[in-house]
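Worked Example 4.2. Consider the chain below.
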Amino acid sequence: MKSVKIWVIFILLFSPLYAVDKQKLLDCYEIFDQKKAELEAEAEKILEQREALESLKNTYMTLIKKKEAKLKAKEKEINATLAKIENDKQKIQNLIAENKKILQEIKQAKMDKVTQSFAKMRPKNAASVLSNMKDKDALDILEKLPPKIVAKIFAKMDPIKAAKLTEMMQKVDTNESTGSP
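Applying the procedure from the previous section yields the following structure tokens:
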């Protein structure tokens, strides 16, 4: 009986503490449940925001890929146009060079005809005509004539003019042998 008494005393002494602890424990569970619900709601918001962010990221990535594809297409188009321009430029340069060559051949043929005409003229008449021409033009003709004909023309020409043309011919010969213009 003694043990029953101790037991009863124990229950009487600790039962109010147990009730208070039980109430506190219930209050803690309620707080934990509330916090748990708040955290779950917050986690749900974060998840929704993450999904929205991922969707936005995918949309932007798709847009960027489309823009890059358009940019590459434009770049390819520009490169093709540049290649065509370079090709046309090269064709034009070739035509210009060909036209210069033809023009030079025409000038040469014309000069050859003029030179042949002077070669067939009498030295006195050739000297008279060359004396009235510009020195450079007369020199061009004289350089193409054989030396014997040039000598006959100089013999019939004014000595001062003949000396000047002879001097110019020597300068041309000197420049050609040294390679300077």
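DSSP finds five helices and no strands in the chain. The mean pLDDT is 83. Compare this with Example 4.1 before moving on.
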